[in-house]
Amino acid sequence: QKAQQVAEQIRDAERQKQLAQKSKVSLDTFADQITTSDVKELRVVLKGDVQGSIETIRQKLEEMGNEEVAIRVIHAAVGGITENDINLADASEAIIIGFHVTATPAVRDIADEHHVEIRLYRIIYELLDEVKLALEGMLTPDRSEEIIGEAECKEVFRISKLGMVAGCIVTEGVVRNDARMRVERDGVVVIDNREVDSLRRVKDDAKEVKIGTECGIRLKGFDDVKPGDRLVAYRVVEIARKLE
Question: Which long-range contacts (CB under 8 A, 24 or more apart) does 117-125 make?
Fold first, then answer.
């Protein structure tokens, strides 16, 4: 009998450990989880005080999203949040949204045990705004290129321990050692999206070199720089996207 009790305790401890390790979807972490998985929809269990409110909220939620992400209401019903709702959300990797309803302490304990998130609201627009923000957070941002400087290669030098270094003069803006670089030759892009391996002014390393200043530039993994080449320094700017 004692062995059975010990075995049951071990099984229970292992079960609790597995539950603690499970990664559940939450409204706050939805964007982070979506970027590391193939999940494309946020699943929702929806509970409300009256059928009219539920229908309105469900329609608004399911109208959100686009070809990248969507909301799927897997269950919607009138009434408070129950243990069955928790079990459904647990099995479906869903969150529970309640409008003008509550969950008893016992039900909240079950939700905590299963790592199921419950979100309660009393104002529809707050509910919709928070869900929309979660969806927007997982949209792939638009990327744009911002040119910060240009340099012209005057001569190429071979320096021991470094390799081929382009002796340049900065002709526009500023060249930074953390910029991305593109090499253009006679109007043709020779190489793009290269990191700066070394940026020097005279013999000293430099973080940036401004217009009108001579410098030495070495790009990572690229030695074929020639006199007359145009070295363009730029940075990639990410712009958060919005749902329509």
Answer: 117/24, 117/25, 117/26, 117/27, 118/81, 119/27, 119/95, 121/97, 124/53, 124/56, 124/57, 124/60, 124/99
The CA angle 223-176-210, to the nearest 5 degrees, is: 110
Nearest to 88 by CA among 143, 46, 37: 46
Q: Is 95:81 a contact under the CB 8 Å cutoff? A: no
Task: Please name which of 230, 65, 80, 178 lies closest in space to residue 131, comparing C-alpha atoms.
Answer: 65
Which 8-state DSSP code applies to residue 103?
B
Question: Cα separation of 58 and 43, whole Å?
Answer: 12
Q: Please give the single-letter amino acid code of residue 207.
A: K
The pLDDT of residue 38 is above 60: no
Contact 169, 214 (CB under 8 A): yes
**pLDDT 10s digits, 72-127:** 899 999 999 999 999 999 998 899 999 999 999 999 999 999 999 999 999 999 99
Burial class (CB in 10 A: 0-12, 13-18, 19+), 168: buried
Region for 201 from its dihedrals, namely left if φ exceeds 0, alpha if ψ lies in -120 to 50, beta otherwise: beta
- Paired residues of 186 in beta bridges: none
